[in-house]
Amino acid sequence: MKTFPTGGVHPPENKLTSNCPIQVLPIPQSVAIPVSQHIGSPANIIVNKGDSVKTGQVIAESKGFVSACIHSSVSGKVNKIDTVIDSTGYRQTAVFIDVEGDEWVDTIDRTDEIVTEIKLSSEEIIKRCLQSGIVGMGGATFPSHVKLTVPAGKKCEVLIINGVECEPYLTSDHRLMLERGEEVLIGASILMKALNVNKAMIGIENNKRDAIGHMTKLATAFKGITVHPLKVKYPQGAEKQLIKALINREVPSGRLPLDINTVVHNVGTAFAVYEAVQKNKPLFERVVTITGKTVSKPGNYFVRTGTPVSKLIEAAGGMPEDTGKIVSGGPMMGKALSSADVPVVKGTSGIILFPRSESERTESKPCIRCAKCVSACALNLEPYLLMTLSEKGLFERAEKERITDCMECGSCSFTCPAGRPLLDYIRLGKSTVIRMAREKVVKK
Amino acid sequence: MSSTIIITVVSLSLLSLFSAVILYFIAQKFKVFEDPRIDEVQAVLPAANCGGCGFAGCRNFAEALVKAETFEGLNCPVGGAEVMGQAAKILGKEALAVEPTVAVLLCNGTPEFRPHTTKYDGVPDCRIAHSLYLGETDCSFGCMGYGDCERACTFDALHMDPVTGLPVIIDDKCTSCGACVKACPRHLIELRKRARKERKLYVACSNCDKGGPARRACKVACIACSKCFKVCEFDAITIENNLAYIDATKCTFCRKCVIECPTNSILEINFPPRKPKAEAPAENATVNP
Amino acid sequence: MSNLLNVSPSPHAHGKETTRKLMTGVIIALVPALLASLFYFGYGAIIVTVTSVASCLLFEYLIQRFIIKKPITITDGSALVTGLLLAFNVPSNLPVFIVVIGAFVSIAVAKMTFGGLGNNPFNPALVGRVFMLISFPVQMTSWPVPGGFSTGYTDAVTGATPLALVKEGLKNGETMQQLMAQIPTPSQMFLGNMGGSLGEVAAVALLIGFVYLLVRKIITWHIPVSIIGSMVVFTAILWLINPEKNADPMFHVLAGGVLLGAIFMATDYVTSPMNPKAMIIYGCSIGILTVVIRVWGAYPEGVSFAILIMNAFVPLMNAYIKPKRFGEVIKNG
Q1: C-beta atoms of C11 and A368 within 8 A
Q2: B261: which of B180, C107, C307, C331 is 20 to 30 A away, CA to CA?
Q3: C7 and chain B: CB distance < 8 Å anywhere?
Q4: What was the ipTM of the complex prediction?
Q5: What is the Cα–Cα distance from B4 to B1, expressed in whole angstroms?
Q6: Beta carbons of B117 and A338 less than 8 Å apart
Q7: Chain A residues within 8 A of C17 when measuring between CB atoms
């Protein structure tokens, strides 16, 4: 079975919700939809206080190439345009909407019928993705139309669909493949058409045997799409590692997958693309896993964007008494939330509640130079060295040691027996080096 | 036996002589001319190598002084006017008048005013906490209290107060080198003009949020109500980004704004006590002795 | 205390390994060798081991308590490992006071002066051992003859190690064939029935420890395999050139402290390189240096010296031998 060759760790999987069918979360009474749910410039708000909006209506338009449209996830009245603390940890501008009924925009096809035939051309598909606000659903939330636009001089040979879901706890992609497998595959075909490739590979980790079996069976009906089981190892869901595992090519440092003629999209993105292109439904709803060892009713839910996390926790049986940490995303790369009022956004793949006993870090002890971080690093960096360099402020040397290659997967901090905050310092060094490089460019 | 000794002595002497000649020629060839005044100027500089002048160290600053036409833009904040005067004398140039400054913290968010809403469980480093989230309180602009400024200070002039969680600046020791200003990821430290008796009057808040969230996060936040702006007779107060700012060069310490401020976000330090009737608001807001 | 939510940077999960668990793992891996030493040397092995471990812990405690005045970390197990390894590297009839001096040098000089765990450039146990070897050469090279569980300590019958026998014999002009009669057979050596330091004799026990370390993923294979591999290759070449004057590779690997050194001493986390490429270079250098010292040097055994010499190069290796980074290949493409 394939996997990426160097580094990686095996965190306990804790996939508590892999057998919980996706349910629909009731629409809350009010939502706060942040205008920056993606990487790139925040969208421009085009509604005003007091406006009535319908479900699926554009409320903020993309600004610049790397940006995405934001749609209303509910119907009702715009209460105010204010700031809300979102999963970035800071206050962001958001549109607050008071819900009245659930009236959708007319153009959306709300039937359950699966539309197989792809009528749109490549350009139209990309345009539809832009209009529907499709972003990478794996968590990075990079606007998809940018990834689908192949610049002149570059060519995409193979599309990779990421169904790895290597983060512990999370099962949203897993359930999506099991319950909406056909839609995901049609979405993949749409992406293939947009990129003008005739080969697509779906990588799924071997801890999701049912999904592998289901998708393999379905994929026989789709030309060019193959399903590949992968050995379980974190961080296989990272773009570069997945490419290495599937087609044994390495993305050069500081470059994009397109430079080695491939593009990676998440299964969640493929599903969103299917809905956008075939059903004309923009992205305002996603599958979110709500889980945790102490949660009474963990599950997977279709959640409208802007819904406060607290509603989701309510649906899962309420917040356990001893909750010490709420994490949005997986335990390895997710962000700890400062409150339960944070809205669900396009990139929220899961909400994990950690009991207090698991939410505190262990004390940082001296480095014993065991080199476990070096063998855990999937990019063959030397985390212990990068940490020391950035702790001591030696950022120029850290740059030479390729600190900017780090993808912040957290394997080094995870594996460190001395409990050292390796990634904290590496992240600091990385951002400082990037800032310094930017300042240098500005000076020139 | 004696011949061995003689051969040894002679051959070693020749070897050393030969090496000495080579060394001499190399030294001559690679000799770099240095203005002797650089050493003289360096001698009068404080030798703290703090970087407050904007150069890597005192030596580089001395070189810059020697090279410069005028002292425009060159100043040693640590040595102040005295040192710059001496340097000017050595170089036969004119020393420019520089106003001494001192560091002040533009935040007064003690736990009493600014309750904690989360617990930060990472490395106690302001830069890391700042890049993670808004901090343990709901104010995304205020002091996080992990002491980056304390670590940056080479003059022992700045200490974290364990009770308030805020840095306390010792005016006598502060040389206004600016190391703490650069160290603070939230730009909360300002170098303000030093006044008589170390008096200070400033808006101890950096919160650019609108009044509502700012006030909810911290009781002594500036809510940009512009009352101070209206009361000021000297045009010293400006309001920008939901935040009032008092220009130290225009402020006359009339202290009217302090009484006017509804949130007590303007601090007055080292002033004599007021007459009884106006005392109430000021007392509440003063943290420094 | 408070019920506020915790917020910290990712990752929010941590592996199960801790420093103490790793050290405990090393100690468990040393148990077979310890049992073997008890079997062969009896009473003496217990005295030396207990003295060494106790004094290492005591010195670390005293230094941390009274000189460094920082939190005491003797519970992390590193001093315990140093004490055990130090005991494993000395003869089982070594007077107690010498063991205490050795422990002092290991902990006080080689470890704590550099800042304690994680900062020492040289393997503490080996520094202690070499210090004792140079300061007390007579006591350090009189090896009790193994024989069942004996209660003899200082009055034990002593004899030479196989390596010393070979070295002496070759110097006196004897050939390997003549010497074969005097040295133990490979199977005896494999089981540990020969003179030597108390922990180094039983190859089989050390190999059991090695397997445990590999299974628990406490060490990687790189250093031990490259040390033994390079030794085998080098001694095989010498042996093929002149079997009269050179011992065979099997003898070199089983005799003396090679296995103990390769599995437990050279792999010491703190003093070994940090990436696989450097580890292999480090291992091969130790193997070759050991053979050089054994064949041409003044001492019959060279593992300790070889490891200490290579310890000195570790910072240099860490700085210049870098792993091939991911995505480095098609740089010009």
Answers
A1: no
A2: B180
A3: yes
A4: 0.89
A5: 5
A6: yes
A7: 372, 415, 417
